Sequence to fold (88 residues):
Amino acid sequence: MLRTFEMHLFSYLCPLQTGDVFLSAASIAYYGAFTRAFRIDLVAEWISETTARSIPVSADSTLKATLASPVEVRVRLSQCTLLIHSCL
Fold:
């Protein structure tokens, strides 16, 4: 019973799938030299392949979603906006 509770607690605290983390690592390794359009196609292919291999992955897996929470992204975007407006 405790083991089940721990698993549910962990999945609540860390909702990332194994495949999400794998795809983020692959994205960091391979993104550099490619265009945005190619990157999108590449990740879609990776998601398809990880699903075919029964690796748990979110259908909308992104590097940004894995590395930052929505709150962190919002804070950073607001800081960038403030910085841009102060430069104008």
